Amino acid sequence: MGKCDALIIGGSAGSLDVLLKVLPLLRPDLSFPIVIVIHRKHGTDSLLPELLSGRTRLIVKEIDEKEPVLAGRVYIAPSDYHTLIEQDHTFSLDYSEKINYSRPAIDATFQTAAEVYREKLVCLLLSGSNADGVNGLKSVNGWGGIAVIQDPATAQVAYMPEQAAIHAKIDYTLGIEDMAEFINLLS
Amino acid sequence: MNLELPTITDGQVEILLADLLEHYGYDFTGYSKASIKRRILRLYSLDKALSFAEFLYRINNDTFYFKRFVEQITVNVTEMFRDPVFFKTLRDVVLPKLGTYPFIRIWLAGCSTGEEAYSISIILKELNLLHKSLVYATDLNPIVLEKASQGMFAMSQMKQYSENYILSGGINDFSSYYTANYSLAKFNDELKSKLIFSTHNLVSDHSFNEFQLILCRNVLIYFDRDLQHKVLRLFDDSLEGLGYLALGTKETLDFSPISPNYKRIPAEKIWRKVI
Q1: Enclosing domain of residue A170
Q2: Hey, what domains does chain B have and what are their CATH numbers?
Q3: Mean pLDDT of chain A
Q4: Segments in B25-131 forming alpha helices (H)
Q5: Does some domain include residue A142?
Q6: B218 part of contact set with chain A, CB < 8 Å
Q7: pLDDT of res. B2
Q8: Which residue of B has its CA nearest to A163?
Q9: What is the pLDDT of residue B151?
Q10: Is A86 on the interface with B (CB under 8 A)?
Q11: pLDDT band per the 50, 70, 90 thresholds, residue A56
Q12: Which residue from A139, B98, B129, B242 has the least number of CB within 10 angstroms?
């Protein structure tokens, strides 16, 4: 398997359970960053980074704007902003219109990352009830990155990975129990 | 359905930004690249440009289209009492402090279509400070200011705004501040009596007054670090001692050279100038 410079994971309804199962099994010395973009309701301070950091030895943090994207960390997209990745490998946040009724939109992060990391990008789309992330995976296809989906048969809500399978070229379809090994082998 | 996404190269974006600066004096070169590129691409596909050359020619030669361009690539998403906890701190902590002054001057930089300006007016009125306040609400984009000065917002938003208002510590019936006019809610004239809407470009314009409170929320995220520092210096030059500077939820003063002069209100993105 080729070298991976970044892994972006997108998901919506039913994706949190997957993350809680997969994160504990990841190597603590991953040679690339993981960026997690999960739809959730905009509220006060999000508990997601705290919840996830209890499940892994990797450093988990919510993204700050202009922060450099560093290997071996798990970054959580803040609620109510789009997370973009810049050519200089820093994060930008953007409060523009919702995309697919979502902010953060998985598409925005997949698309900007696709152009930055090109064939060394891996994007994984999990369970969810809308089609956010599908256009993003098409961009990943276009820039030579690797598109991966959760096996819809294992998804609490199959619509999102199903749509991806229909509209984008999918390189790997993974069951939940195969994800950690797949990610560890990218390192 | 195979929706092929159009692409514009980074080099083309640079050409476009250089042309805007040369022809119109609008400087977007310090903007975050990924964000502005997405905005440009969005307009490019929205207007079904035939080619980048045609798109560029139109921006350079059609001033009407240029106005549309500026309106569309700047982000004008905003709401009333967005982040209610922030407005609660304004109401409970910041404005009562400023209320001891004989006169309160506030600068709302990047006010877009005015939702925050009217939110601030409402709080000032409820604190009985509106009569001695002046709010300068500025934006680089004249089209949104035109809309802001009308004080009319979509009726469909009022339920959400009313909820935000209550969460921010509002004490009245929110609907008493506007009259419903078909699909629009027209806010009472009293609320705009102390609002001054005017164009100001944070990138190229200078300080124009001294203020006790400057609010600039979710504008700096679109700027690169250098431009952020420059704009924060402009705010520092425009803020009185013991004045307050309020930024967006994900923005910070931490990396700026002016930060030693400021003390943060715990848990809020509000800093007080202590020198």
Answers
A1: 6-186
A2: 10-73 (no CATH), 84-273 (3.40.50.150)
A3: 94
A4: 33-46, 52-61, 63-73, 84-89, 95-98, 115-126
A5: yes
A6: yes
A7: 38
A8: B1
A9: 97
A10: yes
A11: very high
A12: B242
Q: Which ipTM value was assigned to this complex? A: 0.88
CATH code, A38: 3.40.50.180
Residue A69 lies inside a defined structural domain of this protein: yes
Specify the pLDDT at position B218.
95
User: Quick check: B174 and B161 in contact, CB under 8 A?
Assistant: yes
The rounded distance, in Å, linking the Cα atoms of B127 and B123 is 6
For chain B, residues with pLDDT lower than 50 are: 1-3
Rounded distance between C-alpha atoms, residue B20 and residue B39, angstroms: 15
How confident is the model at residue B1, as a pLDDT?
A: 34
Residue A171: inside a domain, yes or no? yes
- Residues 6 or more apart whose CB falls under 8 angstroms from that of B65 comprise B58, B59
Counting Cα atoms < 13 Å in the Cβ hemisphere of B124 gives: 25
**What total of structural domains would you count in chain A?**
1
Q: Which residues contact B97 (CB under 8 A, 6 or more apart)?
A: B244
| A1 part of a folded domain | no
In this complex, is the C-beta atom of B171 within 8 Å of any C-beta atom belonging to chain A? Answer: no
How far does B77 lie from chain A, in Å, by closest CA?
6
